[in-house]
Amino acid sequence: MTLYRDRGVVLRTHKLGEADRIVVLATEHRGKVRAVAKGVRRTSSRFGSRLEPLSHVRLLCWHGRGELDTVDQVEVVDHFRAVRENLEKMTAGLALLEVVDQLSQEGHADPALYTMLVGALRALADPATEAAVVPPAFFLKALVLEGAGPVVEACAACGRAEPEVELVAFDLTEGGVLCRGCRRGRPMSADALALLRRILGGGLGAVLRSPPGAGAAELAQLATEAMEAHLDRRLRAVRSAPNP
Amino acid sequence: MYTEPLRVLIDELGRLPGIGPKSAQRIAFYLLKVAPEDAFRLSDAIVAVKERTAWCARCFNVAERGSLCEVCLDPSRDTSVLCVVEDPQAVAAFERTKAYKGRYHVLGGALNPLEGIGPERLRIEELVARIPAEGITEVVLCTNPNLEGEATAMYVARRLSGTGVRVTQLASGLPVGGDLEYADEMTLGRALDGRREVHG
């Protein structure tokens, strides 16, 4: 049995036995960790709400011979209350958690993905941020991190760039935008393309602070489809988001 | 290795929540060893609960098949207040307090986008229909104080906005008998938000 410390974001939890939970976390140094939190479902639990999904925590865990570690102590770094108490922000946050749960692997540290998740949750919690823009921007940035980022500066099929050609479509199989001559996949507006380039070109901060402009809904759909194609599964948190 | 009936019993027990193959085997051998009447009492109880118990047609609590539940049949209950809970176990917990005199509405779960459970899987539209039909003036949201429960409460509150009904939520705070130093930040923060004046 070894004891280790790490920081992580709770991705999801599963009930275990009478009062325990299996907690899945994206950690900074150990990648995805699955650990048992004993007694956490009791109202008198010393863990309380610290191990709910979306919580950013500092952990002390036991690593034994089995598949599951055991949570010994937890301190909250940030519980993102502003995200939990707003349905749109919570839904957006859960979409981030689902993607990170799929991308991260047990035993393989991915500090860049961890840092990006924490940054995205902080952005969501910021009252100045437009929540709807965060998941698609995160999906696109995560795809770049995975080496599967879309080609946006030139036609992904023929390689010709503007102004020589007009980029008018986006195809997941080709892996990026396409010119009029090569077009297939879904049509793409100039607004959505401009937004995509701003997000991937260092302008994400400004995009998050401005109201969702033209092309935002189109880009959100495109980013979700691109991430779903990469993961080869549907994103439940996006597809079954509660919208009264 | 085992006889067919024993193997079937182990398989069936192993399908129960929280029961693994080892536990299933242990329970099956226990049932094999106990007196026949003890084992038949268990099998009769399972048959009886499946044959005679169903969901209340009004609130979806457990009820005798073809009838409303005990709470809905009780004429002394306050029909203007409705407590919205996730499952019938929560109804039992509230009934044990003897502090609540209204009726209930059991949603049948909570929203869980990560598991693909959306509002269409819960009895939310049935709740909305009860508001004018039963003259309800207050809905108390009593979902579990976790992420799924909070999401459900927010969704239901938004769904009920515009119906004119007063929507309240259970207070969130510290468990009686606990120490403040062990309280988590979220609970303590909400307890502070919900502080009330003390008259000495």
Task: Characterize the structure shown.
- The complex is a heterodimer of chains A (244) and B (200).
- With 244 residues, chain A is of the alpha+beta class.
- Chain A has helices at 81-84, 87-103, 111-125, 134-145, 190-200, 204-209, 216-231, 236-239; strands spanning 2-16, 20-27, 32-37, 56-63, 69-78, 167-171, 176-179, 186-187.
- Chain A is built from eight helices and eight strands.
- The longest helix of chain A has 17 residues, at 87-103.
- Chain B is an alpha/beta fold and 200 residues long.
- Chain B has helices spanning 4-14, 21-33, 36-52, 70-73, 88-97, 124-134, 147-160, 185-193, and strands at residues 53-55, 62-64, 78-85, 102-106, 138-141, 166-169.
- Chain B has a four-stranded parallel β-sheet. A two-stranded antiparallel ribbon of chain B has the order 1-2.
- In chain B, strand 5 (138-141), helix 7 (147-160) and strand 6 (166-169) form a beta-alpha-beta unit.
Short note summarizing the structure:
The complex is a heterodimer of chains A (244) and B (200). Chain A contains eight helices and eight strands; from the N terminus they run βββββααααβββαααα.
Q: What gyration radius of chain A follows from the Cα positions, in whole Å?
A: 20 Å
Q: Rounded to an integer, what's the Rg of chain B over CA atoms?
A: 22 Å
CATH overall fold name of the largest domain in chain A: de novo design (two linked rop proteins)
Name the CATH superfamily assignment of the largest domain in chain A. Answer: Recombination protein O, C-terminal domain
SS field, number of helical segments of chain B: 8
Instruction: Categorize the overall geometry of chain A.
Output: elongated
Q: In total, how many beta strands of chain B?
A: 6
- Helical element count of chain A? 8
Strand order of the largest sheet of chain B: 4-3-5-6
Largest interface comes to: A-B, 33 and 28 residues
Q: Can you tell me the residue ranges of chain A where pLDDT is under 50 for at least 5 consecutive residues?
A: none
List SSEs of chain A in N-to-C order. EEEEEHHHHEEEHHHH
